[in-house]
Amino acid sequence: MAISIIRTLILYTVMVTSMRVMGKRQLGELEPAELVVAILISDLAANPLQDLGTPLAYGLVPVMTLLFCEVMLSAVVLKSRRVRRAVSGTPSVIIENGALDRAEMKRNRYTIDELSEHLRKNGVPDISTVKHATLEKDGTLSTVLYAAEAPAIPKQMNLAVPEPEIPLVVISDGEVIGDSLKKLGFDEKWLSKRLSENGNAGVDEVFLMTADKSGKIYIAPKEQK
Amino acid sequence: MKKEIVIASLFTAMLAVSIINISVLSELTSGVSRSAEFCADAALAGDWDAAERYATEAFTRWENHSGHTKIVLRHNVIESGENALITLLTEIYSRDAGRALGAAEAVRRNMESISDVERIRVGSIF
Fold this sequence. Notes:
The complex is a heterodimer of chains A (225) and B (126). Chain A is of the alpha+beta class and 225 residues long. Chain A has three domains: 87 residues; 54 residues, bsu07140 like domains (CRO Repressor, 2-Layer Sandwich); 54 residues, CRO Repressor. Chain A has eight helices and eight strands, in the order H-H-H-H-E-E-H-H-E-E-E-E-H-H-E-E. Chain A has a four-stranded antiparallel β-sheet. In chain A, strands 6-5-7-8 form a four-stranded antiparallel β-sheet. In chain A, strand 3 and strand 4 form a beta hairpin. Chain A is flat. The mean pLDDT of chain A is 85. Chain B is mainly alpha-helical and 126 residues long. Chain B has one domain: Four Helix Bundle (Hemerythrin (Met), subunit A) (Up-down Bundle). Chain B contains six helices and no strands. Chains A and B meet through helix 1 and helix 3 of A and helix 1 and helix 3 of B.
């Protein structure tokens, strides 16, 4: 058991360090420490599940140790900027004022192809429209376009736009979600009225109905046989 | 902060249990080894009753700890220890001093290997 704890601590440290050295390209969505836990935890849990001759403790002890490492590291990272930089890294500015920083790209082993791919995924087909691009700690690219290239927002056009409301599911597969109705400030009487207005005889006929506080609704009826 | 304290306490408890486990296993394996050695000495001296008593003592000691060993040792390791002890008992019953010595040595080595794996040393970590 003690050996298991020590081994897990060593492996965790080695893997987090390796992930940091490998750089942002290897990550994706998770930060280095999170990725290490994600990789290790499934394998550790699977071992005693597959082999009945292995005591459950052989899976539980390393998982608990990883949990300890992760929670403690998160706590330290929250308190110390230096540790945060060492563990999670820092964002890298790849494009600044429209100019590619080749040294930063080289440092991150980030190719032009990868940059183009990330830009396309961000809906930016033309690199010349990008003023700033930052390779984030989790390996994703965030971009800021030149003001002239960025989509106009209502404020810039002096337009008055109503604040959006979040629609809630009020009927799911023929069942009324009472909590949602209550949150929206409506009742079943209002629901029946809206259903009949939209040509639906009853709740049973509705597969999905959403509504927001302004009263805007969406109805998807159940498939007719 | 509450979460961190709970996790740190759990980890400390786990560490303490693992240290206790090392000491319990060490006591068990050294006890079984000692009985096996006494058994070999008695067999060599031709005192088969004493040899049988020591072999049974070693086997009983091992069996009495099965609740603990099943939690902390791989089942093939437990079986291997159990088989070594059964072989020792068999050789004692057959009154063959040479084979009994060999079987006692096998028990001793088996116990030593279990204790070595659990002990915190550079070799067992890597």
